[in-house]
Specification:
By secondary structure, this protein is α+β, with helices and mostly antiparallel strands. The protein has two domains: 158 residues, Beta-Lactamase (2-Layer Sandwich); 141 residues, Heat Shock Protein 90 (2-Layer Sandwich), CATH 3.30.565. 45% of the residues lie in helices and 22% in strands. The protein has nine helices and 14 strands. A six-stranded mixed beta sheet has the order 8-10-11-14-13-12. Helix 5 packs antiparallel against helix 6 and helix 6 packs parallel to helix 7. The longest helix has 61 residues. The N terminus is likely disordered.
């Protein structure tokens, strides 16, 4: 099977040339034809996973092209195979074919006893490498623009799945990086300190039992504090899914639950007040939740505060989140606007980044009797 220059990279490299040129209706230069009226019915993929979205796209492609056989080949450059989904008279079958098996690809697409003629066009996307195959019976040369337009439509239908996957993976990497940094700065360093203390206790045990006991008691206190830290990390890793419906979240309930769990983990009293009664878009609610979470943990862990207050207020199209505590505050003193914090590299880095992602601003007031963080967010900040 020979594919002319300009065809999909998958087929140029994957399908062998042991069959005749007539096996395929060639398309020298795939192009974007005008969106024909029949394409206007293209649905937005409703499936939550890639397999379901591929099935939806093949049903739509077969209906538009009026063919009995249509297939989509998806290639992952990190894997030694090609995933082939074939729509054959209303039934979708799937097969994983080794990348170098040209005959296997040919046999997987063509139904037994069916036509050997097919149109192959690339499905263009920045997220994946794919090819659309359509049985050529009933298709004329003038229909190539329609086939390519269908391929473009499939790309748009599938890209949502890939975009959402990319966002989830990026969020996971970010969270793992943050937790790794927290563990390194907290638990790892404390365990190193505990090891040194125990070594010192061992060295003076025979000569000065009181000094050895002092070292051991210090290690006990340190381990108790780190046990509390680890409980807080578990809080980070297992946020409860609360009151999410139709893409909306009750952030008031989220914050109260968060305050209760952090308070129990760190032995700090946290009071939450909110005048936001309507559910917020879930992405914005998650952002508020994470900002409040980091601020509360910082109050307890670094500020050693006994009490903290969290206030969430809404005024028009703007949210204001305030976290104030009675702890040791920051090493700097005064009132600092967001631009000052960035220019002078002051304040928690992760918290500043989260605020910027939501197109908000942060103000920090740091004094001898505690710290106050004021976060302002636009309601339209939700991605």
């Amino acid at each position: 099977m020979v594919f002319p220059q300009g065809q999909s990279r998958i087929f140029r490299h994957r399908i062998s040339s042991d069959t005749t040129h007539e096996d395929v209706l060639p398309l020298q230069e795939p192009y974007r034809g005008p969106r024909l009226e029949v394409l206007a019915a293209r649905p937005r993929a409703a499936a939550a996973d890639l397999e379901g979205a591929v099935t939806e796209s093949l049903h739509w492609a077969a209906a538009v092209l009026g063919t009995t056989t249509v297939a989509l080949m998806l290639e992952d450059n990190d894997e030694p195979w090609v995933d082939l989904a074939v729509w054959d008279n209303g039934v979708v079958r799937r097969q994983r074919v080794p990348s170098g098996d040209g005959a296997g690809l040919t046999d997987a697409f063509h139904p037994p006893g069916g036509s050997r003629r097919a149109v192959a066009v690339p499905v263009r996307s920045d997220y994946f490498d794919a090819t659309l195959l359509a049985g050529a019976d009933g298709l004329a040369q003038d229909d190539l623009a329609l086939v390519q337009a269908v391929g473009d439509g499939i790309a748009e239908m599938l890209e949502r799945i890939y975009r959402e996957r990319a966002v989830r993976e990026a969020a996971l990497i970010e969270e793992r990086t943050r937790l790794a940094r927290e563990l390194h700065d907290g638990v790892v360093q404390s365990l190193t300190s505990a090891s040194l203390r125990l070594k010192a206790a061992e060295q003076v045990l025979g000569a000065d039992a009181a000094a050895a006991l002092e070292h051991v008691q210090a290690v006990q206190q340190l381990l108790a504090e780190e046990q509390r830290d680890l409980r807080a990390y578990v809080v980070d890793l297992k946020p409860r899914a609360l009151e999410i419906s139709g893409g909306q979240a009750n952030v008031d309930l989220w914050l109260r639950d968060l305050a209760r769990r952090i308070g129990n983990a760190w032995d700090i009293g946290i009071t939450v007040t909110s005048d936001v009664r309507e559910p917020l878009p879930t992405p914005l609610a998650h952002g508020v939740y994470r900002i409040a979470q980091e601020a509360m943990v910082n109050s307890a862990r670094h500020g050693h505060a006994a009490h903290a207050v969290v206030e969430l207020r809404q005024s028009g199209q703007q949210l204001t989140l305030v976290i104030a505590d009675d702890g040791r505050s920051f090493t700097f003193r005064g009132t600092f606007e967001h631009a000052d914090l960035i220019a002078q590299r002051l304040g928690p880095v992760n918290l500043k980044e989260r605020v910027l992602e939501l197109r908000g601003t942060l103000r920090i007031i740091s004094g001898d009797t505690g710290a106050r963080l004021e976060v302002t967010l636009p309601l339209e900040a939700a991605p």
